[in-house]
Design a protein that fits this description.
single chain, 180 residues, mainly alpha, two-stranded antiparallel ribbon, two-stranded antiparallel sheet, 44% helix, globular
């Protein structure tokens, strides 16, 4: 668990930099987080594939309609998409990335995605019906504080999730420190 949390913390820091300049990734998933080896042999997580990202707010990128992918289509990987993104890619903000990173960490810790289904509708229905099982109910060795972090990331209402990736990083980092 501490390795998974450490990797997601690195991804959070990369996503935080994108959010700082007004970019929402919109397609965070395990295959877009790449482990690279530095010259000294240490490993670093790289956040890849900003191909369907969205500029938001007052970002200079938001002024250019062709600078980033259009928001008119349903884009992303459904297992890691927030309910609001499943409804409409246009309506998402940075909290959709918070959801995705929570879903990724959930899957790394538990072994399966927090919400699943045979169709897009099934996944959406599962996500809005009720929260996923607490990770510690599947893996009892996981701390309950980690449950709280993940379940907050996966709240249906974006206003109930972390306000931003910095707050999510702080909470996840505190949990990581307690595991070590």
């Amino acid at each position: 668990p501490h390795v998974a949390v450490g990797y997601v913390l690195e991804a959070l820091r990369g996503v935080m930099q994108a959010h700082a300049i007004g970019i929402v990734h919109r397609d965070l998933k395990p295959s877009n987080l790449f482990l690279a080896k530095r010259k000294d042999g240490s490993v670093v997580v790289k956040v890849l594939d900003f191909g369907i990202s969205k500029a938001q707010g007052t970002s200079p990128l938001a002024a250019s309609p062709s600078a980033l992918t259009s928001t008119k289509a349903m884009l992303g990987s459904p297992l890691y998409m927030s309910p609001e993104q499943l409804r409409s890619s246009k309506s998402v903000d940075h909290r959709a990335d918070i959801w995705a990173l929570g879903a990724i960490l959930y899957e790394l810790l538990v072994g399966n995605a927090p919400f699943d289904g045979e169709s897009l509708f099934d996944i959406y229905a599962a996500a809005v019906r009720s929260p996923p099982p607490a990770p510690s109910s599947v893996r009892p060795e996981l701390p309950e504080k980690l449950d709280a972090v993940l379940l907050k990331c996966l709240r249906v209402d974006p206003a109930e999730r972390y306000a931003d990736v910095a707050e999510q990083t702080e909470q996840t980092d505190q949990t990581e420190g307690q595991q070590s």
